[in-house]
Write a structure and sequence with these properties.
single chain; about 220 residues; mainly alpha; hpI Integrase, Chain A; 2 domains; 3-stranded antiparallel beta sheet
Length: about 220
C-alpha cells in the first residue's frame, strides 16, 4: 500500500507527499550457512564437472550469481592466482584470490569444455549462462545430499564470508573481498561466525611474550 501510494503521488507531481510516507522496516534475519562437511557433500553431488565447478567457484571466491555468469576467461589470471570481477553491484570492480585447489578444477574444466569468451557458456542470447540455470544447479545438487537447511545459491557466499571470519580474516578485508559498499553490511557475519573470544589484556604482554614465558620457567 505504501509503495502504491508513493508511486501515485509521484505520478501526479506531489513528490513532497510521497517523501513523507513512512518507510517499511524489513525483517533482520541472520544468513543460513553450510558447515564444511555439508559443503564437501554438496560439491560432490553434481554428476557434471561443469556443475561441480560452478558451485565450488561461487564458494571459493564469495561470488554473487550475476558475478559468476559475467566472468570471462580473460578475468582468470592463473599465474597471479586472481579473479577480476568487473562492474558488479554498485558498479565497482574488485579482485579476489583464486584458490590453488580451485585452479586445478578450472584448468580441467576449461580443457574439457573449451569455453570461448565467457567462462561458463549457456543459452542466453549473448552466450552466457543464466542466473536461473545456476539456481537450478544448486537445487538439483541439494536433492542428492543429506542437507536439510533452507539454503540457496547465495548461501555459498554467506558461507564463504563466515568461514573467512572464523579463520581470522579481519572485517575490513572481508568487506573489500565481498564488494560491500558499507561495513555495516559485512558486520552481520560477526553474529554468525564462531570466532574464538580473546580475553581483555594489555598489548605490552604480547609485545614481550617471549620474556614472560622465560620468567615462568
Amino acid at each position: 500500500m505504501v509503495y502504491g501510494l508513493r508511486y501515485y503521488y509521484r505520478h501526479i507531481g506531489q513528490n513532497k507527499r510521497a517523501i513523507s510516507l513512512p518507510s517499511i522496516k524489513q525483517d533482520t534475519r541472520l544468513p543460513v550457512i553450510l558447515n564444511r562437511r555439508e559443503l564437501k557433500e554438496l560439491f560432490k553431488a553434481p554428476t557434471l564437472l561443469k556443475h561441480r565447478i560452478v558451485l565450488t567457484l561461487i564458494y571459493s571466491a564469495g561470488l554473487r550469481g550475476q558475478e559468476l555468469i559475467n566472468l570471462k576467461l580473460s578475468d582468470i589470471d592463473f599465474e597471479r592466482k586472481t579473479i577480476h570481477i568487473r562492474q558488479s553491484k554498485y558498479k565497482k570492480d574488485r579482485i579476489v584470490p583464486l584458490s590453488a585447489y580451485m585452479t586445478k578444477g578450472l584448468i580441467k574444466y576449461i580443457e574439457s569444455q573449451q569455453p570461448h569468451v565467457w567462462l561458463f557458456n549457456g543459452k542466453e542470447p549473448d552466450g552466457r549462462y543464466s542466473v536461473k540455470g545456476l539456481s537450478w544447479i544448486m537445487r538439483e545438487a541439494l536433492k542428492k545430499t543429506s542437507i536439510t537447511k533452507q539454503v540457496n545459491l547465495h548461501s555459498l557466499r554467506h558461507s564463504y564470508a563466515t568461514h573467512l571470519l572464523e579463520e581470522g580474516i579481519n572485517i575490513v578485508t572481508l568487506k573489500d573481498l565481498l564488494g560491500h559498499a558499507e561495513i555495516t553490511t559485512t558486520m552481520i557475519y560477526l553474529h554468525v561466525a564462531g570466532c574464538n573470544v580473546v580475553q581483555a589484556h594489555s598489548p605490552l604482554d604480547t609485545l614481550y611474550k617471549d620474556q614472560l614465558c622465560k620468567a615462568k620457567k
